[in-house]
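[step 3/7] fold_predict: job queued, chain A
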Amino acid sequence: MSIGTLTLRDLDPLRDAELLHGWVTHPKAAYWMMQDAKLQDVEREYMRIAAHEHHQAFIGLHDGEPAFLMESYDPRYVELVGLYDPEPGDVGMHFLVAPTDRPIHGFTRAVITAVMEELFADPRTRRVVVEPDVSNKAVHALNEAVGFVPAREIDKPEKRALLSFCTRERFFNRHSLAARGVAV
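[step 4/7] structure written:
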């Protein structure tokens, strides 16, 4: 079964704030840590990201309809400053799949794969860095499926996180094996 077409567009903080508000305050988005955010809080946060030189946000589209959120950042300046030694070509990433009443089997894995493909489309990206909450077992499994390797737990101001890395080679090796039907 085909998942459909996944694409990305730049996030517009003013136009997309209401949509994002529904996503980030939904109970399934608890790890996004914006459960109590007001619409203005979401708008303000994504305006801050849009203005930041080292942080970007995108709306992911599924067959042309908004379905997920992706953020990329330079960990030398955002999120992980002082928490690990970044290497040239490191790019940080967050993603959030929109809540739905009609889940599609395999959709979240297709989203993280599309996000990783987008990040590695930039030839300067050598490694993707993530820092999910240590208790978010579902995202740890997804990360592992696309090639992330846990490094260590770190303490961020808002959470205890599992610092993990995925190299370009590891991702494309996993991705090509999965495409051929080999269990990874």
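[step 5/7] annotate
The helical segments are 13-24, 39-51, 107-120, 137-146, 168-179.
Strands lie at 6-10, 55-62, 65-73, 90-97, 127-130, 149-156, 159-167.
exit 0
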